[in-house]
């Protein structure tokens, strides 16, 4: 169930607890990054305890892609800090379940997959940064997210390539302001890592007009009004900026043939009770 | 061997590799925070692999006290990033060895204690921040480090109280500038957590004139020249500011009766090849 059930305004104004209750009842199974605007959203990655240290190390070593904001004790079904009332098994609109490096299911809850030895990682995705950019009236839009050919820094048995995302800023000044703001939010990927469209080979992007993971051009939510319906072509003075993407742990699950992992489905996020601004480190 | 072997100037100008070689040969066994000035120093905490996830979680949940800058794979004897040429078993001037929650040794190397399943945590201590404060000509001195009665956020089997440290800033403006600078360096404890001397009960400090861990008053190194020989009494306009202390994992080892842990001895640090400024996040 989805898009037409609520207006954009209704979604934006929903409290995190209300929105999670709606999702928990199965009444919203679409991307929810435009809901409860201003509240911190989180990607999810869940592994058995015997993979938890390696995933934590992987996140530590690849902070631009997957900075772990909160990590639970084994078996916990709720984050103790960023969303104490949430149930990690039911409160995301859609999940992905990996077995031996393959996606075996994309369910709307993971109750039947849950085990007592599971450790959950809550990882801040791009929409948190986009909200902060919007608050500061920075003019940007998001092209989408891509599979790169750049290796993540491995950790134990975990390895894989980085997922990355691309934004277009309207002017150089918007890009600089965007970097300043992003730098204050390590929980929202922190500062970007790459500029421009003239060095795509380094990242292994064959065609930046065809994002592999999430095509966002044309989505009006979480884009500056000036940049809606932008399309892929840069206009004079605009700057393309590449940043991390929280789908990276999923690529690691595939590449490393992790025996069992549960994640969010891209753009189907946990809505937490914390405000994005709470994560500013300065 | 120690203090009189080299002049302060010789120590300050020693390269990290030179200083580590001197320490490795057993020719320097004293605190080394004043050596290789400007280079990032690291506390050490080493646990068997089956405690590594919990220690990582403990660091994650108590970042003001013990922000882990680098974590090794099990068995690695060298950090791959911040000091690739270092040997963690020999290159700190003095270690502490814990067994079942007790200190059993304070050796100058840990070769005989080393095991293939050990995971090493490199944790940024206060001297890195002090260097940044000195660079910016902020006027401060350090009173010392204390055992507080404030619980760290536990992680699995790991629990204990926070170690904290106290600095005095000469003016409110120095204190504000100090907070701004500290906020840019999460690897150097980040922003402080407490002000003043009129709420010591909250932290469980019975007598702030008697630091439990490291008394620093009177040490001229790493203090602003205006504040050397300051003594414990605040002068008009000065501000006492409390921050995290990297001895916290050692308090957890004691309180949690960790079967086996190796750490640095307080103020006996690993000198890395990275510059303090490399860790600025903005």
Q: Which outline of chain A best applies?
A: globular
Largest sheet, strands/sense/barrel of chain A: 7 strands, antiparallel
Q: Tell me, rounded to a whole number, the average pLDDT of chain A.
A: 93
Q: Cα-atom Rg of chain A, whole angstroms? A: 18 Å
- By secondary-structure content and strand pairing, the structural class of chain A works out as alpha+beta
Share in helix of chain A: 10-25%
Oligomeric assembly: homodimer
Regions with little confidence, pLDDT below 50 for 5+ residues of chain A: none
| SS element count, helices of chain A | 7
Our estimate of the beta-strand percent of chain A is 25-35%
Count of β-strands of chain A: 12
Can you walk through the features of this model?
- The structure is a homodimer of 282-residue chains.
- The first copy, chain A, is of the alpha+beta class and 282 residues long.
- Chain A has helices at 8-13, 16-24, 49-61, 126-135, 172-183, 200-203, 248-255, and strands at residues 39-48, 68-71, 95-99, 102-105, 118-123, 140-151, 161-169, 194-195, 214-215, 239-244, 260-264, 270-275.
- Chain A contains 7 helices and 12 strands.
- In chain A, strands 1, 2, 3, 4, 5, 11 and 12 form a 7-stranded antiparallel β-sheet that branches.
- The A-B interface holds A 49, 52-53, 56-57, 60, 68, 71, 73-74, 119, 155-156, 180, 183-184, 186, 190, 281-282 and B 49, 52-53, 56-57, 60, 68, 71, 73-74, 119, 155-156, 180, 183-184, 186, 190, 281-282.
């Amino acid at each position: 169930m989805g898009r037409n059930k609520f207006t954009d305004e209704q979604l934006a104004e929903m409290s995190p607890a209300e929105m999670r209750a709606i999702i928990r009842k199965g009444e919203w199974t679409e991307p929810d990054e435009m809901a409860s605007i201003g509240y911190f959203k989180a990607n999810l990655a869940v592994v058995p305890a015997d993979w938890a240290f390696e995933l934590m190390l992987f996140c530590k070593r690849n902070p631009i892609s997957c900075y772990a904001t909160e990590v639970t004790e084994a078996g916990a079904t709720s984050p103790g800090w960023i969303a104490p009332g949430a149930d990690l098994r039911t409160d995301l609109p859609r999940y992905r379940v990996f077995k031996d490096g393959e996606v075996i299911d994309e369910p709307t809850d993971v109750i039947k997959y849950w085990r007592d030895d599971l450790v959950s990682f809550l990882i801040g995705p791009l929409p948190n940064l986009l909200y902060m950019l919007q608050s500061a009236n920075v003019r940007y839009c998001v092209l989408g997210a891509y599979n790169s050919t750049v290796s993540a820094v491995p950790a134990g048995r975990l390895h894989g390539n980085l997922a990355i995302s691309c934004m277009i800023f309207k002017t150089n000044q918007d890009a600089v302001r965007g970097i300043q703001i992003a730098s204050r939010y390590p929980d929202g990927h922190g500062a970007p890592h790459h500029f421009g469209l003239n060095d795509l080979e380094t990242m292994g992007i064959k065609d930046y007009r065809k994002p592999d993971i999430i095509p966002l051009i044309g989505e009006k939510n979480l884009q500056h009004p000036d940049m809606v319906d932008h399309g892929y072509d840069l206009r004079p003075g605009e700057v393309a900026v590449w940043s991390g993407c929280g789908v990276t742990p999923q690529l690691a699950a595939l590449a490393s043939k992790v025996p069992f992992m549960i994640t969010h489905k891209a753009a189907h996020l946990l809505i937490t009770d914390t405000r994005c601004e709470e994560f500013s480190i300065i």
